Amino acid sequence: MAGGDTEVVVIGGGAAGIAAARRLHDAGVDCLLIEARQRLGGRAWTIDRDVPVDLGCGWLHSAERNPWVEIAQAQGRAIDRSPPPWTRPLFNSAYSAADRADFVETLEAFRHRVGEFGDAEPDRPASAFVDLSGRWAKLIDAVSTYYSGVELDRVSARDLGRYADDGVNWRIPQGYGATVAAHAAGLRVVLGCPVRRVDHGGQRLAIETADGTVTADAAIVTLPTSLLAKEELVFAPALPEKTEAAAGLPLGLADKLYLSLSNAEEFDTDRSFNGRTDRTETAAYQVRPLDRPLIECYFGGGLAAGLEAGGRAAFHDFAVSELTGLFGNDFARRVKPIHHHSWLADPFSRGSYSCALPGKADCRATLATPVDGRLFFAGEACSKHDFSTAHGAYLTGITAADQVLSARKDKPI
Ligand SMILES: Cc1cc2nc3c(=O)[nH]c(=O)nc-3n(C[C@H](O)[C@H](O)[C@H](O)COP(=O)(O)OP(=O)(O)OC[C@H]3O[C@@H](n4cnc5c(N)ncnc54)[C@H](O)[C@@H]3O)c2cc1C
């Protein structure tokens, strides 16, 4: 690249950045998308060797209003609308159907209490809404580590209550990540080029990258909050309100490990269960996802962070210990690790999805607010109701692009 000039630079080629750049490109704006990695998609990432599997987002949450559904279909991809495993019958011996019904009722009651939490009251940790001595307290905490990437005591109840879950969840068998990346087809993109500094002190913006400086009239910043909080992208002059907002919205952690499963037909397709029901540090397992001979193991929060230190082998050992606990020692011979990614160790994400700390729910609005009509912010953490998701990221990208277009109309840039 070694420098250049453009109207708008979009920094980061994940779901938000791609949505923004596509919108601007389609509106006839000269736009350059600069991405640090050698691939597009960010936390949306499909690995396609034998079968496509998603190491980042996999579920089209709120599917009936999720814009990626239409995009995937326009790309010629099928949508799987079968019920998600967590709504199907169980087969976990440690956990009977009656137990599960009781757990689901307790979890729903917790979510209802959090959803009803009034805006006038001071914020509290979501753990304040759980009966900590209750039978399902640990399992609800474990679910929080999958859902929010952290344990309940680090989750803002106000933020959690604002999340809009329409309860419809579909999948793209060819991959959510592949869909997101393909949406960038035809855009002007530079890969493998981390942006280091945005100088917004002069008449035009100077975007300093690992491979030269690009001048521009406007920029859309879509970096994960983990990187903004650590000022891995420097703003000159500094933007302390953005750094502080990002620090209030740290990325929780969720990591996936895929195991191949021999004699998979013995299991019904798309079934899920937890390794344990009596502790927070347990993984969630999905057997035969989309009828494939695999187990998707999902690790969240402190458990995932601890296992990352030991790499893929540590995740594998933990999964095998839980699975053999449920299905007997011979089960160890039926599974082999095939794909895994450590999102906390990943230098361009440093975590999985944002979660507002107690008292910090309004940091999302602060982060999303434009600066001087030429620095715009997008990314899942900017979404008030759809944070943590790929569709939330998309929608914030569209909002930021529309803000650029309207600033351009008001004052031709
Ligand atoms: C394990 C896991 C499971 C998930 N499951 C789901 C799910 O089922 N459904 C769902 O909707 N969501 C899910 N998510 C969340 C979803 O993937 C993210 O919310 C979404 O992809 C974030 O998009 P984004 O554009 O905001 O951020 P990102 O995808 O992180 O995009 C930011 C981009 O900026 C780039 N970047 C970083 N630093 C620089 C720099 N200095 N210069 C230039 N570029 C830089 C990054 O490489 C990245 O490409 C999951 C995430 C993970 C990790």
SSE inventory with pairings:
Elements: E1 4-5, E2 8-11, H1 15-26, E3 31-34, E4 46-48, E5 52-54, E6 59-60, H2 67-74, H3 97-116, H4 137-147, H5 157-162, E7 170-171, H6 176-182, E8 189-190, E9 195-199, E10 205-209, E11 212-216, E12 218-221, H7 225-229, E13 234-236, H8 240-247, E14 251-252, E15 254-261, E16 271-274, E17 284-287, E18 294-300, H9 301-308, H10 311-327, E19 335-340, E20 353-354, H11 363-368, E21 375-377, H12 390-410
Parallel strand pairs: 1-11, 2-3, 2-12, 3-8, 9-13, 12-21
Antiparallel strand pairs: 4-5, 6-7, 9-10, 10-11, 14-20, 15-18, 15-19, 16-17, 17-18
Helix pairs in contact: 1-12
The structure holds flavin-adenine dinucleotide.
The site of flavin-adenine dinucleotide has 40 residues, from helix 1, strand 15 and helix 12.
Gist?
It is built from twelve helices and 21 strands.
How would you describe the overall organization of this protein?
It is a single chain. The chain is α/β, with parallel strands linked by helices and 413 residues long. The protein has twelve helices and 21 strands. The protein has helices at residues 15-26, 67-74, 97-116, 137-147, 157-162, 176-182, 225-229, 240-247, 301-308, 311-327, 363-368, 390-410, and strands at 4-5, 8-11, 31-34, 46-48, 52-54, 59-60, 170-171, 189-190, 195-199, 205-209, 212-216, 218-221, 234-236, 251-252, 254-261, 271-274, 284-287, 294-300, 335-340, 353-354, 375-377. The strands form six sheets. Strands 1-11-10-9-13 form a five-stranded mixed beta sheet, with no helix packed on it. Strands 8-3-2-12-21 form a five-stranded parallel beta sheet, covered by helices on one side. A five-stranded antiparallel beta sheet has the order 16-17-18-15-19. It is globular and about 65 Å long. The two termini are 23 Å apart. The model has no long low-confidence stretch (mean pLDDT 95). Flavin-adenine dinucleotide binds next to α1, β15 and α12.
